[in-house]
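Comment thread on ticket #2218

A.B. wrote:
> Attaching the input chain for the structure job we discussed in standup.
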Amino acid sequence: MKSQLILCSAALILASSALQAQSFNVDVGSNSASNPASSYGAAAAQPGVWTRVSSDLPATTTPLLDISTGASTAVTLVTSGGLGNFTVNNFLTNFDDERLLDDAQDVGPGTVSWTFSGLQNGNYEIYTYGWAPDSALIRTNIAVVSATEAAQQVGGTWTGAHVQGVTFAKHTRSVTSGTIQINVNTSVFDGGLAGVINGFQIKRLPDAGPITPFCFGDGSSGLCPCSNFGATAKGCDNSAGTGGAQLLATGSLAADTLQFSSSGELATALTIFLQGTLNQSPAAVFGDGLRCTGGNLKRLYVKSAVGGVAIAPVAGDPSVRVQSSNLGDPIASGSTRFYQAYYRDANASFCPAPTGNTFNISSGLSILWP
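C.D. wrote:
> Ran it. Output below, let me know if you need it in another format.
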């Protein structure tokens, strides 16, 4: 048994090392500027060595550094377009935030592309920093080619912490040809001042199974509307103080016997199980919680919780796949759907309107149907 545990631990360490070897931190700007410290994880909570990449033209292909060892890797990054590097000392930023954000690429009036090459195939999170240190009015539009999420607009006033939609855009993408391309332009100018690129974090994700939890109220997916953050991997907290609702699933996808359970709700809360075709990022404030389920939305089932737990489907209900088809969204093999459960929380003083409302929503599940 001891030898089996040692082998298992070694396998986990090797897997973790492989993922780290394909994760990168990049600070864009002048080669004479200072990088953030290796202890700085930024929005991705990914500490490690930062690679300095200049955006001055003509563009130079830069090998990226391993975040653990600082050794050069076969993964490269190159830009096209833009007006080169610039630096502005924004008085609101300091320390490592300042080192990342106050020097950047000037995107200019056109479209700029950044291309990562030599990546291992797999699933990645891409954090793109597009915060203009010279004006809170500027908005940078950031799109990742073939990402799950649509283009996102970034800009605003520095709040003392990284916030999606203010300092960075976050996309997920499955890489099949070793490359990630990010296209950037200015969506809102301030006079002659244009959008920027401050840097990137590329985070290799473990190969996921068909059911993947997502959309959490613990601060990792966005800010809960009344700072009512939930426990880890749950939705935003509710008036009962349960730590938020968590959506889980059991059963067989192949046999279409999937059953959802949403726990951590109010004792008898009316609950609607929601299905969507898109992962909406950034998350949208939805009542007292965060909704990441987007696209073509279907209300699959309406149930009442028992002891704070709502379950669907139950005996007599159509299966998930059948119900989805009944509602006009047949689920083809190989397609992904996103799920959350929203529920009644009638305590209007807990997270009062217009910031909140009298309902909340669970964490979510992304499901790849066979």
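A.B. wrote:
> Thanks. Noting for the ticket: The first helix runs from residue 2 to 21.
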